[in-house]
Amino acid sequence: MSAARGKLPGRIGRWRFKTADFLGNLSIFNKIFYGIILIVMIVIVASGISSYVYSRNIYIHQTTDNATRLVENINTGFEDILDQVDRIIMSIYADSDSTGSKSMKAVISTRSNTSTYEELRSLQAVENFFQRLMFLRKDFKSVYIYLLNEKTYSYTVNGANKLDYDPREEAWFKKTMEANGKTVISAPHLPYQLNDSNRVISFSRVLKNIDDPGAAPFGIILIDLSVESISNIVDKVKLGPASGVVFLDQQGKVIYENHAKFGAGAANSDIMNNVAAKNDGRFTLNLPDTEYLVTFSTSNITGWKLLTFTPYSEIERDVHKLLLFDLLLAARL
């Protein structure tokens, strides 16, 4: 080992001697020529490294913008849905009796049906209302109306109604009653009032007595939309094929994921430590075999944390191509 170390200084000395001898034998023209080439190569390599760092930062910034754009799309999408819910509620109040049919306003304001015929007319009115909702949105799943005089109406595209379902002890019902007429958004879940394995997003609201604001409310309405309503909004962001999206509710629970591995990754304590106390930001997360840039932002409509997972390999793919081009250019010189 010590003998090998003793030979190394001698080798370096011989290499320096040969280099000096080679340079000493060059003509002035060749010295200038090779000097210029060396300077150009240094400039190209330095430029390539600078371009790599700059381009990488640009791609990271674009990835952060994707999270911001996702939040904007979610906010806009849910604002549109809330506006539609408002219009649906107002259409109930504006509905009027016509020949042979009963109005929705009469259905919710009547304490009880006086006869089997009146009950049939009420069922027909709610069924017509349900069909109008189906034409309004493709992702519409079900409507549930609970009247405080204990009349209940439930219609659905899929699944079966739970017999004798009583919502009064349910958290969503209490939250809706306490919302003072505001629409309550329930994160993706299995339908409350149905036996159905397909998750939905619910929008619930108190049906107030607008003719007598001081009177007790008529009841509540619950409208379920398919989780596809979120997927359609996410797809508009046009993330990379290897990227993932995860939504967390206010308690940090995963409520939406476009791939199971990202949902499992989001259940990581590192994620909660990074996103819990901030409205937005970014950090690096290592999942099995892949390093991800995680960017997040908070929806001011739902309060959910929206996270995007972008593999660094995807961010750096085009950047590596640029650096390789610069190095090949330097090599050709």
Give the secondary structure arrangement, pairings included.
Layout: H1 2-25, H2 28-94, H3 104-109, H4 116-136, E1 140-147, E2 152-156, E3 160-161, H5 171-177, E4 184-189, E5 194-195, E6 200-207, E7 219-226, H6 228-235, E8 244-248, E9 254-257, H7 260-266, H8 269-275, E10 280-287, E11 290-298, E12 305-311, H9 312-332
Antiparallel strand pairs: 1-2, 1-7, 3-5, 4-6, 6-7, 8-9, 8-12, 10-11, 11-12
Helix pairs in contact: 2-9
Instruction: Please provide the ordered H/E string of secondary-structure elements.
Output: HHHHEEEHEEEEHEEHHEEEH
Q: Could you list the spans in which at least 5 consecutive residues all have pLDDT below 50? A: none
Largest sheet: 5 strands, antiparallel
Distance between the termini: 40 Å
- Content-based structural category: alpha+beta
The main sheet orders its strands as 2-1-7-6-4
Strand tally is: 12
Relative helix content: 40-55%
Mean pLDDT, to the nearest integer, reads 77
Can you count the helices? 9
